[in-house]
Every structure is written in C-alpha cells, then in structure tokens.
Design goal:
With 412 residues, this protein is an alpha/beta fold. It has a seven-stranded mixed sheet with strand order 13-12-11-14-15-19-16, sandwiched between helices. The chain has a five-stranded parallel sheet with strand order 3-2-4-1-5. A hairpin with a 3-residue loop joins β17 and β18. α12 packs parallel to α13. The protein is elongated and about 90 Å long. The two termini are 29 Å apart.
C-alpha cells in the first residue's frame, strides 16, 4: 500500500503513518518537517520518474511507502500520477486542506464559485486569461508564473490580488492584499502558495447549487435588440452564430474582436468563458461596447484605436480573432491578425470585392481557408395577420485555421 499524506497547510502527519514507513518521498520542506523512522530511505521529489521507479520497487515487495504532498494531494496534485502508475486501489490517501481552500479561508471568502487554474510548470497565459474573464480565480503559482508576473499582465483589470505565502507555517505564513501594479513591483521569493485574483465588486458571489465557475449561457447568437448599436451596424445573429462556432471561445482562451462596432462578438465570447478584447476606432463605439459588456455582466477589455496599428500594442497572442470591420485596410488587418492568432481567424464581409484579398491574406499566412456566403430571410408580419420573408443583406464569412493549432487549455 502507498500512503499519500496531505500536509503543509497546518495539518500534522499522523505518527502511525510514518512509524512503519520504509520509503518516504516528498518535497524538501515536507521531509524536513517530520522525523523519519530509523533506517527509512528518503527521496526528495524533483523529477518524478526516479521517485516513481523507487516507489514501484518498494511497493512491489509489499514494503511500506509514504508520499508527503501539499494540502489535498488529490486536487491538482500527485494522486493523479500515482493512480495512473499504480492504480487507485493501491493508494491510501489522507487528504489535508488544499492551499486554495486555506487561501480563501484566510481571505474570509467562500470559494464554491471560484475557478482554479494551475500555472505551476505551465505557461501562465491560460491563468491570465481566466483571471481576466472571471471574477474569482485561484492561481497555483510556480517559477515564472508568480504574483509579479500575474500582476504585470493584469494591471489594467481593476482586480485585487491576494497573495498567500507559506500557508500553514506559523512563523512564515503571509497573506497580503495588493493591486496588480503593486504585485508586479515586488520580489515575492519562492514561498508563494497561491494567488487569488478577485473582482472587488463580485468577490462574494451568489448562492450556488453547483460548485465551480458559473454555468455557460443557455443560448448564444443573441438577437440584435439585446445590444446597443448604431444604424444596424452590428453582426447579425445568423452570422454571429457561425462565427462563434468557428472561433470556438472557451475558458482560458483570449479572443480579439477587431473593428468591434457594438462589441456583440466580444461580449458573446466573454459569455462563453473567454477573455475578450474589443478594438474599435470610433469613440462612441468604445462607450457602446463598454455599455453592452456591462449589460451582459461580462468583462471585455476595450481598446480605442484603428487596426492594424492598434493591434501592435496588445499584450499576448490571441487564440482566435474575429474581424468585423475594415475598408481598404482589410488585407493588412487580416494579415496582422493572422501573424498573431494561435488557432483561428474569422472575417465577415458585406462587400464582394474584399473577399479575394482577405482569403489571400489568410492563405499567405499559412492558414487553411474556407468560407461561406450567408443569405437568410426572417419572418416579418404584414397587415391582415399574414407573414412574409424579409431578406437580410448577404454576408461572406471566411475562416482560416492554423495547421497544428495550439490547443492547450484548462485540461492541460
């Protein structure tokens, strides 16, 4: 039997577990915090493969093995690796309090509605995008993805960061509430356990029946009447439905809406869980996008500027881009977006003359390109209690998909 003990957040290691141990595996600080039985072999966790091989050797001979881990080892912890290698029936897991639960407890907040993302040993972009999109996020940190890096990436969000260090250590534990700018300016060392990223106005959240992030919307491709817009300058819901299907916005993604107009695509992407940036050159359009995002209860970063120049100042490469505006500059805009997009670029055009150049821009960037002309007729009432079909303007929708597109997300 392999006994896995969660410790490090204030829970002591049961003496009876250690007393018979012949092999004890754990991080340096966990091993230093316990007294090992005389004659027990000790392995400091670094690369997993040598430790797993040693565990297999001992467990295969029915010798007692103890693995010390942080908090709840079944929560983004070592239990997954051990269960895959040795089978769950060979594990005796003694869970402690997870660092996430401890951090929220120190902050005095419930966390049944929090999104938890690990940046430990991973590119922090997914964590940053989740923090931008959701009001309550816990980030498990790691080298190169700690409070300073998160703070630098979230300066413009208005979020508050709660940095929890050395949780469970009576002498070293620290829980500090800072702005992203303050977090970016400090050297936090290596003891940080978890960072909470909170929207101050929505940190408490609502009473929930199902734990985890808020459920996705019951519907999408909302009616144009659900958005403030000028002179019908809005992506029609039929076009928006296919555009969303091709963009594939999801938790952890970053999506740009370029030439956003009313911001309807950006808002819908945010409703589906992605971090959204809307780029719009008209000042009244910028205010309209902000109002639409607020009306739908989502965060959309709005950038006032004209593409393609405004795109150069955007941090982070998007997973997907929707291009809904653009005149003569459309080929340059599509090219600029294609250089940055990790997965998909979708372009909507009403003018037939723009299609060849937009398609060429996508294929020249190495994308596999496809498209469709959308023509729809909506039911419209006539006098006498009868109905006619009212045709909408035809729209070309092109989409380019990068071969071998980056697909990492929250499952990684």
């Amino acid at each position: 039997m392999i006994t896995v003990v969660g410790t490090g957040t204030g829970a002591p290691v049961p003496r009876d577990v250690l007393s018979a141990a012949e092999l004890v595996v754990g991080g340096q600080r966990h091993l230093d915090a316990v007294r090992l039985p005389e004659g027990a072999e000790r392995i400091v966790l670094g690369p997993l493969a040598p430790a797993l091989d040693a565990i297999e050797e001992y467990a295969g001979k029915d010798r007692s093995v103890v693995v010390l881990a942080s908090g709840d080892p079944g929560f983004l912890g070592i239990v997954r690796v051990l269960a895959e290698r040795f089978g769950p029936e060979r594990l005796d897991v003694r869970a402690g309090v997870s660092s996430v639960a401890a951090a929220f407890a120190r902050a005095g907040l419930p966390w049944d509605d929090a999104v938890v993302v690990s940046a430990h040993g991973r590119d922090p972009r997914t964590a940053v995008n989740v923090c931008r999109a959701h009001p309550k996020v816990a980030v498990l940190t790691g080298p190169g993805a700690g409070p300073a890096e998160l703070g630098a990436a979230l300066r413009d969000t208005g979020r508050v960061l709660v940095v929890a260090s050395a949780l469970g250590d009576p002498e070293r534990e620290r829980v500090v509430r800072v702005t992203p700018a303050e977090a970016a300016a400090r050297d936090w060392g290596t003891a940080v356990s978890v960072v909470l990223c909170l929207d101050p106005e929505r940190a408490l959240g609502a009473v929930r029946t199902v734990a985890g992030p808020a459920p996705g919307p019951a519907g999408w491709a909302l009616d144009e009447a659900d958005f403030a817009h000028r002179d019908s300058m809005i992506t029609k819901f039929e076009v928006r439905a296919l555009a969303l299907a091709r963009l594939g916005p999801r938790l952890g993604d970053l999506v740009w809406d370029v030439g956003a107009g009313s911001g309807s695509v950006a808002v819908e992407c945010a409703r589906l869980g992605a971090a959204a940036v809307a780029v719009e050159k008209a000042a009244d359009g910028v205010e309209r996008i902000r109002a639409n995002a607020a009306a739908h209860g989502v965060d959309v970063r709005v950038v006032h500027g004209a593409a393609p120049d405004a795109l150069a100042g955007l941090d982070g490469d998007p997973d997907a881009v929707f291009v809904g505006g653009g005149g003569r500059e459309l080929p340059e805009i599509v090219t600029a977006c294609a250089r940055r997009a990790r997965r998909t670029v979708v372009v909507a055009m009403a003018a037939l003359d723009r299609v060849p150049a937009a398609r060429e821009a996508l294929t020249d960037a190495g994308f596999t390109c496809d498209g469709v002309l959308l023509q729809s007729s909506r039911l419209a009432p006539l006098p006498g209690d009868v109905t006619r079909l009212a045709a909408t303007n035809p729209v070309f929708l092109l989409w380019g998909v990068r071969p071998h597109a980056c697909t990492e997300g929250v499952a990684q």
